[in-house]
Amino acid sequence: MSHAPGTASTAAPSPNALPSYLDANNLGPWGIYLQQVDRVTPYLGSLARWVETLKRPKRALIVDVPIHLDDGTVAHFEGYRVQHNTSRGPGKGGVRFHQDVTLSEVMALSAWMSIKNAAVNVPYGGAKGGIRVDPRRLSRAELERVTRRYTSEIGIIIGPNKDIPAPDVNTDEQIMAWMMDTYSMNQGSTATGVVTGKPVDLGGSLGRREATGRGVFTVGVEAAKHIGLDVAQARVAVQGFGNVGGIAAKLFAETGARVVAVQDHGGTIYREAGLNVPELLKHVAEHRTVAGFAGAETLPNDQFWEVDCEILIPAALEGQINKTNAGRIKARMVIEGANGPTTPEADDILQERNVLVLPDVIANAGGVTVSYFEWVQDFSSFFWDEDEINARLVRIMRAAFAGIWQVAQDHKVSLRTATFIVACTRILHTRELRGLYP
Ligand SMILES: NC(=O)c1ccc[n+]([C@@H]2O[C@H](COP(=O)([O-])OP(=O)(O)OC[C@H]3O[C@@H](n4cnc5c(N)ncnc54)[C@H](O)[C@@H]3O)[C@@H](O)[C@H]2O)c1
User: Fold this and answer.
1) Which atom of ligand 1 is nearest to the CA of 365?
2) According to the annotation, is 330 in a ligand binding site?
3) Is residue 412 a known part of a binding site?
4) How many Cβ atoms sit within 10 Å of the Cβ of residue 121?
5) Which stretches of the chain drop beneath a pLDDT of 70?
6) Which of 56, 146, 166, 348 could serve as a FRET partner for 3 with CA atoms 20 to 30 Å apart?
7) Side-by-side strand order, sheet with 235-239
8) What is the set of domains in the chain, with CATH numbers?
9) Residue-wise pLDDT tens digits, 211-226
10) Distance (Å, rounded) from C-alpha 388 to C-alpha 377?
């Protein structure tokens, strides 16, 4: 119904109205995020009056990405860039290339970036992007064309001071180099600060590639102290042996922990005495999978979840720990390297069983923390050495985790809810300070 200018609506829309562009009966990941916000609202005090801000993305751009395929035909792909919140600074978050990406998923991932960035207190809002494409079906030249056209299309809302993309699933340093180049060509000057996760020779940061795994390890060690777990004696199981899982496993093994089981897309391997992680990394670099590694036995994939261990690190995909396997997990602590690896039902089961979950929104925040360092270094064109970067990363992660642990104790809530309390309070406090324009 329309109203004459200046007259008030008699039927004001509900403040909780869901966006018309999502299916209210099948909200997808955005629905999970909304539940998490509802759980935290009672702890926000007077800032709760602003909470509706968090339930709507500030801006969602849907773009058509047409490219010439190598065979001369034209293909179209759907692309997104969502800026969930920019109260604390420019948007920041990765770009995912996957055939199943949806607007709901990108909205949720952008909101989790708002939470993550506020949790480690880096001066960013949250954003995320994606293209519905299976990059394995594209040639390198087609992949470059998709990346460049997408970057050009979202170029109207990204920029070093507006929104800074980064790698995510199926996007890497090369794709960041193409994004940086495309944006720079359109602007007429090189703008290294428009994306992070770039090659080191193109304004990337030392330590960025290892940063997420190092953050996983750092919060794991801190949490272990609180529950009286000796990391050097612990057994560790890792799902996903890529960037995040591989580095986290290496760092745990270096402290003396035994990495007893590893699962990736190719299979599951096990060795009670502990796998030789440096050798396994070499094997994966050569064979692209842990399967076939000498000096380990093979387990059926489903048995991975009931392996005897103290620390379980999901570092692959979303929804891996769910109501079918959460009851079988033997670990004392789950460290979420992946984004969204635990469903809300599984979260409740683990909490009832006294398994401590270190949630993604703090556990895998090491990546964005060093992305922040990369952005700062690009602005000043002054680059730091790796020891300095790692020392700053560890300091930020430890301080952030200590604050969240204290909030969890004070309110007797899970670490996930505690992280949301800390982050939402920071975001909404800045919202209140800034006020509403106009
Ligand atoms: N790379 C980062 O900086 C970063 C930062 C924050 C969060 N994350 C999240 O961490 C997760 C992993 O990212 P990554 O950068 O390590 O990716 P990656 O591509 O380097 O590694 C992914 C790993 O998952 C494994 N895998 C894929 N499908 C699987 C399956 N069905 N079962 C078991 N294992 C499977 C792959 O074999 C591979 O070992 C993602 O959820 C990502 O969003 C990554």
Assistant:
1) 6
2) no
3) no
4) 18
5) 1-16
6) 56
7) 297-299, 267-270, 258-264, 235-239, 311-314, 333-335, 356-358
8) 57-192 (3.40.50.10860), 209-363 (3.40.50.720)
9) 999 999 999 999 999 9
10) 12
